[in-house]
């Protein structure tokens, strides 16, 4: 009896969990297993399970990194499409867990409504993004202009339709369960769709704001695993018994160093640092601009305490590298809590992984649990410390106004510049 109680405590199950399981009917989902390719199974058959898992994870990690490089090469629009596909897969994995738990009640319209709400939320967010970043293209096409003008009303009407469908689907004796699932769907939408929308916003600010944060999370995940595998002795958190303090600390220092090096390399290329914009002349999306001060080498004085150690008085680096320290620090210290949150979720439902899509790694959601938390931080960081007024967007909006409105703004701006004494100096020049 004591062993059973301790096992239940280890798995995070309490009396209330048992009652909920009884109320919902049926047992918890069976833990998923990794579908390791037969070729790898035969090649690694002589190894212990520990080293076999190490090699499987390593080979598949290299394959995923290679795929990541390929989609980066294909450009921002392909990256946006991949983010959309990842979002749909993550949503599918979480909703499938809910369906497996509650399927015995045969709830009407549950899957249909879940995917309908996903469609509605994506229509709202992607419509906002297109209108914000590609305003000129939207205003030029009549159908897009109409959809843009009434976008929020259309989005609200679509959501109301789904809301009414849910109310009509309520079945006697299962009201509470259906409202549980309604909440399940909306929390999933909040976690998955909102965060993927922020990832796309970061991407359009410049690919460097997309690649560096994601790469820092990947680096931290790999290095924490490596340090933990070879040196790990001290458990970090009960939610993830394999996580160790040695891996956590080693991953932090490795990630900060990696972030500095990657930022230095990428800051020298316009294709990474320039925002994505629509070119009216060529009718295409372009990534070309004059680099901002963030991506121009600056000379910094090294503190006197460190001058005697490193032997330098000054250091040339990109200002973005300083910001990369903040990004990599968050990826190392706070980002893993997204993984811990996912671990708690999986333990609550007695599953090992969200799915078995990637051998040795679990599902797509198992790989992106930390990325979504990172996306929110990057978006907030850009809005708080980086982004300022965008002159090109203001001009685009100005050109869509009526001639009398444009003339009024012109006269107002002219009077303001004259009062400031700037217009006269410009005319003299």
Automatic annotation (TrEMBL):
GO terms (molecular function) for this protein are: phosphatidate cytidylyltransferase activity
One family from Pfam that matches here is CTP_transf_1
Give compartment(s): Membrane
| Keywords from the named record | Lipid biosynthesis, Lipid metabolism, Membrane, Nucleotidyltransferase, Phospholipid biosynthesis, Phospholipid metabolism, Transferase, Transmembrane, Transmembrane helix
Name the reaction it catalyses. 1-octadecanoyl-2-(9Z-octadecenoyl)-sn-glycero-3-phosphate + CTP + H(+) = 1-octadecanoyl-2-(9Z-octadecenoyl)-sn-glycero-3-cytidine-5'-diphosphate + diphosphate; a 1,2-diacyl-sn-glycero-3-phosphate + CTP + H(+) = a CDP-1,2-diacyl-sn-glycerol + diphosphate; 1-octadecanoyl-2-(5Z,8Z,11Z,14Z-eicosatetraenoyl)-sn-glycero-3-phosphate + CTP + H(+) = 1-octadecanoyl-2-(5Z,8Z,11Z,14Z-eicosatetraenoyl)-sn-glycero-3-cytidine-5'-diphosphate + diphosphate; 1-octadecanoyl-2-(9Z,12Z-octadecadienoyl)-sn-glycero-3-phosphate + CTP + H(+) = 1-octadecanoyl-2-(9Z,12Z-octadecadienoyl)-sn-glycero-3-cytidine-5'-diphosphate + diphosphate
What pathway, per the record? Phospholipid metabolism; CDP-diacylglycerol biosynthesis; CDP-diacylglycerol from sn-glycerol 3-phosphate: step 3/3; Lipid metabolism
Q: Which InterPro entries does UniProt cross-reference here?
A: PC_trans, PC_Trfase_euk
Family, per entry? Belongs to the CDS family.
- The protein here is known as Phosphatidate cytidylyltransferase
């Amino acid at each position: 009896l004591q062993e059973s109680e301790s096992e239940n405590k280890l798995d995070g199950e309490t009396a209330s969990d048992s009652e909920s399981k009884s109320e919902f009917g049926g047992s918890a989902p069976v833990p998923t297993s990794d579908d390791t390719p037969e070729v790898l199974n035969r090649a690694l058959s002589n190894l212990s399970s520990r080293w076999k898992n190490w090699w499987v994870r390593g080979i598949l990690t290299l394959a995923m990194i290679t795929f990541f490089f390929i989609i980066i090469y294909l450009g921002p629009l392909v990256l946006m499409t991949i983010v959309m596909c990842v979002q749909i897969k993550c949503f599918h994995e979480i909703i499938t867990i809910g369906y497996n738990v509650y399927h015995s009640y045969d709830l009407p319209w549950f899957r249909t409504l879940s995917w309908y709400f996903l469609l509605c939320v994506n229509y709202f967010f992607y419509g906002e993004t297109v209108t914000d970043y590609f305003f000129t293209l939207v205003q030029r096409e009549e159908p897009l202009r109409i959809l843009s003008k009434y976008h929020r009303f259309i989005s609200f009407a679509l959501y109301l339709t789904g809301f009414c469908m849910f109310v009509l689907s309520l079945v006697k004796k299962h009201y509470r369960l259906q409202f549980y699932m309604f909440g399940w769907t909306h929390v999933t939408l909040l976690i998955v769709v909102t965060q993927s929308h922020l990832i796309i916003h970061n991407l359009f600010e410049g690919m460097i704001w997309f690649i560096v944060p994601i790469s820092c999370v990947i680096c931290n995940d790999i290095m924490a695993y490596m340090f933990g595998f070879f040196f790990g002795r001290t458990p970090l958190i009960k939610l993830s018994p394999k996580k160790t303090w040695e891996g956590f600390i080693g991953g932090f220092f490795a990630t900060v160093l990696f972030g500095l090096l990657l930022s230095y390399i990428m800051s020298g290329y316009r294709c990474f640092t320039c925002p994505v914009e629509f070119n009216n002349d060529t009718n295409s999306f372009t990534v070309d601009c004059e680099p901002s001060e963030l991506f121009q080498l600056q000379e910094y004085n090294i503190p006197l305490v460190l001058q005697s150690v490193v032997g330098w008085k000054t250091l040339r680096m990109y200002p973005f590298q300083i910001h990369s320290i903040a990004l990599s620090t968050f990826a190392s210290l706070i980002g893993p809590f997204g993984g811990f949150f996912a671990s708690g979720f999986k333990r609550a439902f007695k599953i090992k992984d969200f799915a078995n899509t990637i051998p040795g790694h679990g599902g797509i959601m198992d790989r992106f649990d930390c990325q979504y938390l990172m996306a929110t931080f990057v978006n907030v960081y850009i809005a708080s410390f980086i982004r300022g007024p965008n002159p090109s967007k203001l001009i685009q909006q100005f050109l869509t106004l009526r001639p009398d409105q444009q003339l009024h703004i012109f006269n107002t701006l002219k009077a303001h510049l004259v009062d400031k004494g700037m217009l006269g100096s410009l005319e003299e020049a």
